[in-house]
Amino acid sequence: MIVTLLGILLVLPAQSSDEKKATLDYLAKLQTPKAAFKADLKSEGPTLRATSSALRAIKYFGGEVSGKEKIAAFLLSCRDAESGGFADSPGGKPDGIVTAVALMALVEVGQPTDKTAPASIDFMVRHAKAFEQIRMTAAGMEAVSGRSDRNAEWIALLAKEQNDDGTFGKGNAMTRETGGKVACLLRLGGKVKDADRIVRALDAGQRADGGFGVEKSELETSYRVVRTYHMLGRRPARADALRAFIASCRNPDGGYGVAPGQPSSVSGTYFAGIILHWLASKS
After folding, report:
1. Is position 42 within any domain?
2. Within a domain: residue 153?
3. pTM above 0.70?
4. How many structural domains compose the chain?
5. pLDDT tens profile 219-252
6. For the chain, what percent of residues have pLDDT higher than 70?
7. Range of the structural domain that residue 180 is part of
8. What is the secondary structure of 248-280 as a DSSP string?
């Protein structure tokens, strides 16, 4: 079996040992002969983004991945040497967000990035126009301890969008926008003036079922929000309710959908794993 259980250091209290094993078994089925991973059981081939999600999901559920050298080779085969960017599959069109994911995945498998990172950072920065591109550029740079001359510009841009209480967005979108933008601000080297007010606003945005979302709870928005809690050294006031919501996204195959009733996917399983990890963290 490709994925094996490690020790008790990464035990996630929301899952029994049998449930963790089933989740790791599900993730193992997504690994292809190339050692890279596909997005779900129905997908035909591996992608860079799915591989990155799988690597981290396995870690957070207490497993270990084999074939890291082959995975690194797959990741590097997605790189466009001329631009420094990465595509989601070999021969594809390079993309800034995918490039950020690639840097994180390379670090995850222990692949040195000192030679590839500078060109990749330059590629990401040049293509970072909208917020999602800036957000992921910040994440990619953080993974390789990199910075950009545009950090200060982006921090100022985010500051202009901030509400008086430090949150972002309005109405139902407030928790999602705050989760994404506060974390991005901190990753870029910015600061928040009143973490307590931000945390209170996020607590107020937690939905009745324990999750976070714009129209309804789902794991992708919950992931963004809990990242901000974690970076501020806090937890949701109703952390147990969030754990219960995550459990409701679990399927009989051991994987997690991005929302209750949705089919299992590597992304849903990653979101579940990292949120549970943060909730169990002391910081």
Report:
1. no
2. yes
3. yes
4. 1
5. 999 999 999 999 999 999 999 999 999 999 999 9
6. 94
7. 149-252
8. HTB-TTS-B-SSTTSPPBHHHHHHHHHHHHHHH
